[in-house]
Amino acid sequence: MLFVEVFVQQTQMLLLVTLLLIDLVSTRGYNHHSYGRHVRNIDSMGISVLGEFNQDLAFPRFSEPIPNVTVTVGRDALLACVVDNLRGFKVAWVRVDTQTILSIHHNVITQNPRISLSYNDHRSWYLHIKNVQEVDRGWYMCQVNTDPMRSRQGYLQVVVPPSIIDKETSSDMVVLESTNVSLTCKATGYPEPYVMWRREDGEDIRYNGENVNVVDGEILFITKVSRLHMAVYLCIASNGVPPSISKRVQLKVQFPPMLSIPNQLEGAYIGQDVTLECRTEAFPTSINYWTTERGDMIISGDKYEAVSMDNGYKKYMMLKIRRVNKSDFGSYKCVAKNSLGETDGVIKLEEIPAPTTIKTTTHFTSLDTKKGNSRGSTKGTSNDNRVNSVGKEDTSIAEYDYDSEYTLPSNGPPPIQEPPGAFSGASRNFNSIAVAIFFLFFSLFFYFLEMVSSDEGPR
Predict the structure, then answer these.
(1) Quick one: which of 160, 162, 107 has its CA closest to 136?
(2) Are 259 and 336 in contact (CB under 8 A)?
(3) Handedness of CA 201, 206, 210, 212 (dihedral sign)
(4) Distance linking the first and last C-alpha atoms of the chain
(5) Are 335 and 344 in contact (CB under 8 A)?
(6) At 390, is the pLDDT very low, low, confident or very high (cuts 50, 70, 90)?
(7) What is the pTM of this model?
(8) What are 91-107's pLDDT values in tens digits?
């Protein structure tokens, strides 16, 4: 009997424990089916347990992220927030860094007059910022007032094109040659601008012993500046935001005059026009003039013409002397002066022989014929005509003068050509032979007549 009572008590306790476990499982929801997904949670004791994250599909959700926006300062910006299934919930825009509420649903809360709001189909919510300033750069949040609150963030990047700070940038400079020069250029912008130097005329810069086209950095430092550095320099600032900007800085280098003469000895003959040349370099610009051997300053007029042409710090001087005579031979001086010094150069003008003029006269004889071929032969209608044309021999003289001037070369004057129409030597030889044959024929004819007459006489 006792054994049966113990068995019944144990069976009841086992049944009770089983019912408690079933109740626990049902209350903890291990097999409960609902909208959501199973996740692993950590309880307060640090023990990992399975739990269910219940996400109600009826709640609002963001259909896309808020894109980051980059805007140039002074332009307008637009931030978009797209929410699906908003239902009765409300949308708000918040400036994250300052925790400033900009708008709630249809109403703009901020006092900033550049900010406005627009929406479309209760789904797309747009935040407008006009005339964007650098203070507008930062994160912006779109919120939905669910519990817990749901949000998305987007970044507004405000870029600023470069600008040059005039008060911290060099202006036009005038320095002495062989001194050190430093040109400075300061620029602002966002992102920070990149600054470089180059010459406006595109020529290379003599920098640290090398010829370079561009020098990077805010400072252009030139040691022992020379006249070759004299130019307009451009400070150019850029940061990828158009437009780039530049400033012109003119560098002038002062030095005393320097002079060069292409030909220190010139020759001319009487009556010739001659030109003397002289080249100078100076800054400040020099005063240039010519003097005679006696020191008299030469003034342009009928006899002299003095010309000066500028090319930057270089000058070209020219003195033209018209119709040189004996008194013009001697030394001439070109002079250049400025506030730093004076220099001069001497050119000597010497007499040279005038070129020889060659005059040639040619005489020749030709046969007077009615008709002649290229060989000078005659044609007629009878023998009498042929006899008369030979017996009536005329001579005509054609004269050709060569008055051209020649500067005598080393191998003598050019050969004299036969004038047009003159007989060549072969033609004249042919005419002499023809006349001799004709006279021989004429003599034989008279000899034949004499023989005939002697035969017909008395026997």
Answers:
(1) 160
(2) yes
(3) negative
(4) 227
(5) yes
(6) very low
(7) 0.59
(8) 999 999 999 999 999 99
